[in-house]
Amino acid sequence: MTSVRVDKQHDGSEAAESASGEGYQRGLGARQIQMIAIGGAIGTGLFLGAGKAISKAGPSLILAYAIAGLVIFFIMRALGELLMYRPVSGSFSEYAREFIGPFAGFVTGWTYWLFWVVTGITEVTAAATYMTYWWNIPQWVSALVFTIILYGANLISVKLFGELEFWFSMIKVTAIIGMILICAGILTIGFSDAADTASMTMLWSEGGFFPKGIGGTLMTLQIVMFAFLAVELVGVTAGESKDPKVTLPKAINTVPWRIAVFYVGALIMILSVVPWTHFQPGVSPFVAAFEEMGLGVGAAIVNFVVLTAALSSCNSGMYSTGRMLRDLALNGQGPRVFTKLTKSGTPLIGTTVSAALMLVGVWINYVAPGKAFEYVVSFATISGMWAWIMILVSQIRYRAAVRRGEAPESEFKAPGAPFTSWFALLFIGMVIVMMGIDEGARVSLYCAPLWALLLGVSYLILKSRNPENAAFKR
Q: In DSSP terms, which residues pair with 241 in a beta bridge?
């Protein structure tokens, strides 16, 4: 039995003691957790992927983000309920192991690790794409340099990691708010080249609110859901938060206004100033918007901001992969070498292995720079959504355990659950169906069975060699 498990009771003090026993340093304060939570929802999916989504759905993308954002809130409240029950760095992998079964925990831990490896490739790809705005540098060169730099940054203490993420997120938040204010100024005061045509009526005058039909909007759901991937990262920080019982609920409750401002609000402003027909895949809608407004300097600034956003997400990915590998190792479901920590509390071996695999992104950018982002987005989306599915199913099973008197009630109950959790599961199921219909996204569904087969065989080998490690003990 590892230190992340609780033997008798699951009250707040024992949960905290359990988490602290994992060997990590509680170096993440309230403001850092808040900004990690905010910044986790603002990344490549919004800054780069939205360009393709706008070209596919037009203004109706706003509605897609709003509905998907509501589903994300249901997922985060389900996670919050579990976190207040038992805050550990293993997070949803631990909950899947406890409430669904050891195999579910095994699959979730390794799949979430893979998700962040693939997402790291995605973010490095995006960062390399942004570099071409200023210099004609081969994408693979930029991807290699960024991967090496971020690996070095992740060897620092968690406190400094939190501080870096705080300022990365602050840059992203400030930039989006600034862009919203500029667009609002164009609509009300009237300045820049776009002032003559800027109007809220552009949300429906350029072919209607659904210019590509309802089907076009539905086909953007995988891009929309990808934009929200990483909001669950706050769950992984539970074992290193100074006061998880206070900071985590506050961070989770900011989800609605984060989505309302940074996604819905930003898109309403942009599409009211620049016609949706002017946006195209592979080009950041924020950069394109400023260029359409005749604000060339503004476009350069935004390009720097979105570059920062991509590197921030990749940095978070390296942080998460090392912790997830260590949780698997602590539970006997991964190589023991991953349990080792540096003096500063960093899982060095797990982070190193993950960073090495992220170098695959360099190869992808070398052989297929034009398709690199589309490939990795598809696979990252399906693997990331598995974590959401496990969060929801674990929360439903946890509620059932509470009703049977087998587990204490959480202090942070999800409103409307378990009905909201079932609704979120159905929505995710619909997104997966849409991915199967979309030829570009279908590649991820081909890869998923192969990954599942690999995990199944690995688990059978693990169970045959050490049955004790294939069982969860309280």
A: 28
Q: How confident is the model at residue 455 (pLDDT cuts 50, 70, 90)?
A: very high
Asked if residue 469 lies in contact with residue 462, where contact means CB atoms within 8 angstroms, the answer is yes
- Whether residue 275 is preceded by a cis peptide bond, meaning omega within 30 degrees of 0, is no
Instruction: Give yes or no for a contact between 383 and 118, defined as CB atoms under 8 angstroms apart.
Output: yes
Between helix 296-330 and helix 139-153 the angle, nearest 10°, is 50
Indicate whether 210 belongs to any domain. yes
**451 in any annotated domain:** yes
Tell me the pTM. Answer: 0.84
DSSP three-state, residue 415: coil
In a domain? residue 470 = no
Question: Residue 89: what residue type?
Answer: S
Most confident range (mean pLDDT) of 123-137, 228-242, 243-257, 444-458 is: 444-458
| Among the ranges given (202-211, 339-348, 381-390, 465-474), the one the predictor scored with the smallest mean pLDDT | 465-474
What is the total count of domains within the chain? Answer: 1
Q: For 74-121, how does the pLDDT look when each residue is reduced to its tens digit (9 = 90+)? A: 999 999 999 888 877 667 888 998 999 989 999 999 998 888 888 787
Angstrom CA distances, 4 to 23, 27, 93, 330, 398, stand at 10, 18, 12, 8, 18
CB atoms within 10 A of CB 280: 12
Instruction: Reduce the DSSP state of residue 78 to 3 states and report it.
Output: helix
Alpha carbons 440 and 374: distance in angstroms, whole number:
7
Q: What is the pLDDT of residues 26-73, one digit of tens each?
A: 666 666 776 776 666 676 667 767 888 898 899 999 999 999 999 999
CB neighbour list of residue 257: distance below 8 Å, 6 or more residues apart: none
CATH number for the domain spanning 69: value is: 1.20.1740.10
Of 431, 346, 343, which Cα lies nearest the Cα of 386?
431
Instruction: Sort 157 into a burial class: Cβ within 10 Å, 0-12 / 13-18 / 19+.
Output: middle
Q: Which domain holds residue 93?
A: 12-463
Report which residue type is found at 351: T
Residue 290 falls inside a structural domain:
yes
Count Cβ atoms below 10 Å from residue 188 Cβ, excluding itself. Answer: 10
Q: Could you tell me which residues come within 8 angstroms of residue 382 by beta carbon, excluding any fewer than 6 positions away? A: 432, 435, 444, 445, 447, 448
The burial of 434, by beta-carbon neighbours within 10 Å (0-12 exposed, 13-18 middle, 19 or more buried), is given as middle
